[in-house]
Amino acid sequence: MTGTHTALIEKINRIQPLNPIMMELLAAIQNQDSQATDLEHIIRSDANTSATILKIANSPFYGMSGRIKNVRDACVLLGFDQLRNIIYATALEHASNGGPHKIWCQKLRRHTLATAIIASELSLHMTVRIEKGQAYSLGLLHELGKQILVSELPDLFHEYMNTQGQPEQESIVGTLIEAGTIIAQKWRLPEVFQTCIRFALVPSDPPEAFQNEVILIRCAHQLAQELGFDSPGDQYTPSEPGALLHYYPTLPADVITETIQDCINSCPDLDRSTEEAQS
């Protein structure tokens, strides 16, 4: 498998999923000196990127439907944290909007969105100690390898799905995780993102500096699946006492679960009737 793995990694290294404008935007949001006006200037320089950001900003999830008329409105009304998350969502839209596996791609988008919402809600509790906007972003991108390769290397993703539950799938899982870290580096994502992508879905101990973030994403990922938002190819079997009590035993699980369920129910992009219609 080593030769095959090496060939796949070489293919992944050759993937250029983002245009220069998106790369410039991603770099700008990591720069602590950047202002909303800096992002506005970059966004307005490319019509396609502007259109995608305006589409996402006006989606029902952000509560601004019809209010975001232009890039300046997006920068002023949304605030830096939400704008940052919209840029991440736009990067995913640019990079994963293709390939033959439409249903799997849609399920994966729903899973990562549910994970992002759950992570951001959990972050409100002092035990978690992670800023809400970052928690959302980490959840949105925690399966970056899958999110890109479902479109860029559809044959590999097909093999991944066909070996579900079999020993052969393990090596592909490793390749997907490695792909995610490679792409995160290409996107110049901060180290905390790269760490969550590498460690959140495997039992290995993460670096101590980012343990809180990895634990949060592990919990949110599993809780999303417990709530019916499966990650394609991931055979997750809920166990007692459940993800929330396992990772955060001191939190009021019933109250938090109810709040999370309300947030998910109020998100039109996670409407189950929409998923059934698309299937």
Automatic annotation (TrEMBL):
Segments forming domain HDOD: 15-203
UniProt name for this protein: HDOD domain-containing protein
Xref: Pfam families: HDOD (PF08668)
